[in-house]
Amino acid sequence: MGRDTEAGPVTSNSPARDGFTPIPTEFAGRYRTAGYWTGRSLGGLLRSAARRWPDRPALVDAAGKRSYRELDADADRMARGILAAGIESGDRVIVQLPNVPEFAVVLFGLLRAGVIPVLTLPAHRRAEIEHLAELSGAVGCFTVDKIGEFDYRELAAEVCGRLPGLRHVFVLGDPGPFTALDSIPCEGDSLPEIAADQIALMLVSGGTTGLPKLIARTHDDYGYNARASAEICGLGPDDVYLAALPAAHNFPLSCPGILGTIATGGAIALVTDPSPECAFAAIERHRVTVTSVVPPLAQLWCAATEWEEADLSSLRLLQVGGARLDETNARTVRPALGATLQQVFGMAEGLVNYTRLDDPEDIVCTTQGRPLSPADEIRVVDTDGRDVAPGDEGELLTRGPYTLRGYYRAPEHNSRSFTADGYYRSGDLVRRLSSGHLIVSGRIKDVINRGGENVSCDELEEHLLAHPAVRHAAAVGLPDPGLGEKVCAVLVLDRKALAAALTLAEVRQFLTIRGLAPYKHPDLLRTADTLPLTAVGKIDKKALRATL
Ligand code: AMP
Ligand code: DBH
């Protein structure tokens, strides 16, 4: 598979600032004056909370509670240990951890050390981790021993073997050949001053073309994202937020999620398994008040109230986002779970839209919300880039106080993804109501949204084409009642291979060997003699979809 070389040569010791596109000075000034950017670091967010609510629980799990004072001290120790281990402020490290309290300790430790976490998901495999480590110039990796049958130490070993710059591997649990996370030396120097306009962390884009991209978020912009989201959700010290989606994702991390909860003195509970059985038990045990899920999970949870006995009466707000929630399912949330529904239409790139707690039921059930910030600028444009008439469908463009101005180290891609005046082209098709609420109607970008996970068609096709028997490949999303969309691979096979027809199981095995995350594998396989082409000779997905 070809590497994304558009960013040019990158070495692990080149500073993070290279390849980062900051928000222009005149906009930054406005965001500071308006009070959106406070100049405080994300590590400082926890420090303030620990001063204000030292004895309140910050993290709760089956083993007990960790107070704000304790989490604050743990984060300091982790920060000192990280620096004492030889990782330097400004370095990037891969973080691949499950939803456990240590996620927060590692995250805040890194933030306070000024070391930039690249927040990957447990579902990522070699293809993604290697690419993200190389692109970010990561010098280390914070991972876990095993989740289920999958051994993350083997993954780390494989990636380290290919990227010699990856020198520090810390493992939660049994470290194998690496260093145990809990043996990080906890003495060391004082911690660095953190400038709030610097990169705090990197999120991974769902990916629309080729390999996943990195989104660098600053302390200023991400802190605002978390605080303003917490305000919209009415979060306070009596709230208990359940991280049921992978904690490294923008939604449970900062919308308002973990960071928004910390900013407002609430408690965080985490589950590694979001099934109704497991999540409902956590809701009952910790008296969870707010949580966030993707639509298929919302659907499953609503159905499960029929057979699960758990007491969910503490739950006041269920946030649903990541993919379009249909109206029928939206309307079942309150009767089934007894919680207010909030639709959330967000992107790791920045802009997040929320329905408000006091929006009329019809708005909550039929729209994907309106922008978080009064400073979010929205345009809805046609294919020529002209604003459409109010209420008409078009592509959503946006810029604002927490939306990126460029992907990290991706100049070529950036020239396509942003307008000259800095608007991000979301690729989402929306209609805007006079109230400002948006209805998402589709995507212009070629991505399959499989149960809230974005599967890039280009990326999958690239892997499929690497199979010796495959001549042409097209990935298309087909409607699926459970997942929203499922992944269908249409292959034109090499003539010689036709006799030994390729099965779906063989294709999936091939992708597993290539290290592609299982959620990106096809659910269906079709073979064809040819693929329909457009006038300029591109594969015509629309026509293809119509034949399936
Ligand atoms: P990502 O790039 O992985 O952060 O995914 C963001 C994309 O997910 C958005 O650009 C939308 O295409 C999609 N998305 C997120 N939330 C919603 C929602 N509530 N309704 C429809 N699409 C959504
Ligand atoms: O899908 C997403 O990326 C997403 C969904 C809801 C997101 O980034 C968010 C909220 O912040």
Secondary-structure blueprint:
Layout: H1 25-33, H2 42-52, E1 57-61, E2 64-67, H3 68-84, E3 92-95, H4 101-113, E4 116-119, H5 126-136, E5 140-144, E6 146-147, E7 150-151, H6 152-162, E8 168-172, E9 179-180, E10 199-204, E11 214-218, H7 219-232, E12 240-243, H8 250-254, H9 257-263, E13 267-270, H10 276-286, E14 290-293, H11 295-304, E15 317-321, H12 327-337, E16 340-347, E17 350-354, H13 361-366, E18 370-371, E19 377-381, E20 393-399, H14 411-417, E21 424-432, E22 438-443, E23 447-450, E24 453-456, H15 457-465, E25 470-480, E26 484-493, H16 504-513, E27 524-527, H17 541-547
Parallel strand pairs: 1-13, 3-4, 3-5, 4-10, 5-8, 8-9, 12-13, 12-14, 14-15, 15-16, 26-27
Antiparallel strand pairs: 1-2, 6-7, 10-11, 16-17, 17-18, 19-20, 20-21, 21-22, 23-24, 25-26
Helix pairs in contact: 2-3, 2-4, 3-4, 5-6, 7-9, 11-12
2,3-dihydroxy-benzoic acid binds at residues 250-251, 255, 321-322, 344, 346-348, 352.
